[in-house]
Design goal:
Length: 349
């Protein structure tokens, strides 16, 4: 064991930790004792510390702590901390860089990237907006801000905050960016205006989409939907009929389905609102006076021509009103003949 300690100590002092670890693993394969295991664990920890000291980030950090605040040191620490995801270190070195060397465009952009990686959307948005205000001609910054505004509009629309989402989408429509971004922004504007029931503005947005982006998907269906919401369902149906006549077989089925979705409820509504003939006013019962305290009336659980006798609990005179079906006459019937026509009644003896 003494020779093992000496060899391991010499290799460690020479910073040859890999060789010392290999020697220890070989000795432990032959015979493993608790003492060798403790020595191996200590050697692994020393090797890790020595390896860490060879990391340039650690060495530059040591130099910074000792008072070296040169641009090379601070810039390396800032960039490496951003690359490795050390966000707290990155913010610290960014403040130090701004303190010693002032604020500029690359530094402000790095601050935006740090906040974006941290998930601080509001802080990142503020930094990017400041960049666009200071450098309005930078297309890359404008595109990044437009993408962020569209993402913000999506989140607000998911929360049904259409009043707040509309300005974010409208901001993108006023920028000089690529065609797909502008198309997406106008479609979000359309969705917000429909959800806010601003149908006149939605029709104007549809006109803009048809003029600037004529290949937008399902413009006919969107316009028909807005017309239907405005109460102009007949115009929406005629719009679908015109599209059905011009469309290919695949799109024709799509337009037919859209036409049915609008036409069927509209037809049902028209049928419900149509005037109906008045029902016949045939009396269902009539009344006559009878000298008793029993009411003859129809109960809800019995058919119209079945009548039940229910005792009246009110203090009424010896007579009362009896309800009889309308099919029965209130006038006395002619007594039935007890003898056949042309003959005499036979009496029993």
């Amino acid at each position: 064991m003494t020779l093992v300690y000496k060899k391991v100590g010499i290799l460690s002092e020479m910073n040859r930790h890999p060789e010392a670890l290999a020697f220890m693993r070989d000795r432990m394969r032959r015979r493993s004792t608790p003492e060798l295991q403790r020595l191996y664990s200590t050697l692994v920890l020393d090797a890790a510390r020595a390896e860490r000291q060879r990391d340039p980030y650690v060495l530059y950090g040591t130099a910074f702590e000792r008072g070296d605040h040169s641009r090379e040191v601070v810039d390396y620490l800032l960039n490496t901390s951003m690359l490795r995801g050390y966000n707290d270190d990155a913010l610290f070195y960014l403040r130090e860089m701004r303190r010693y060397y002032g604020d500029d465009k690359p530094l402000l952009y790095k601050e935006y990237l740090i906040y974006r990686n941290m998930g601080e959307e509001r802080q990142a948005f503020n930094r990017l907006t400041l960049l666009c205000e200071r450098y309005p001609g930078d297309g890359e910054l404008t595109d990044a801000l437009c993408r962020m505004q569209l993402q913000r509009a999506d989140r607000l629309m998911e929360q049904e905050l259409y009043t707040e989402a509309l300005p974010a989408a409208m901001f993108v429509t006023r920028q000089r960016t690529d065609v797909e971004t502008l198309r997406a922004a106008w479609e979000k504007v359309l969705s917000c205006r429909i959800r806010m029931k601003r149908y006149d503005d939605a029709m104007a947005t549809l006109d803009t989409l048809a003029t600037r982006f004529p290949d937008t998907e399902n413009l006919v269906g969107k316009r028909a939907y807005v017309l239907d919401r405005m109460g102009r369902t007949s115009e929406a149906m005629y719009l679908y009929l015109g599209a059905i006549g011009r469309a290919d077989p695949q799109m024709r089925d799509f337009y037919v389905a859209g036409y049915a979705d609008i036409a069927i409820p509209y037809i049902r509504q028209c049928l419900d609102e149509a005037p109906r003939p008045m029902p016949s006013r045939r009396p269902t019962s009539c009344w006559r006076w009878t000298p008793r305290t029993t009411w003859l009336c129809a109960t809800p659980s019995t058919p119209p021509r079945r009548w039940a006798a229910t005792t009246c609990s009110a203090n009424i005179p010896t007579g009362g009103w009896n309800a009889i079906p309308a099919s029965r006459s209130i006038w006395p019937r002619k007594p039935r003949r007890s003898t056949p026509r042309g003959g005499t009644r036979l009496r029993s003896s």
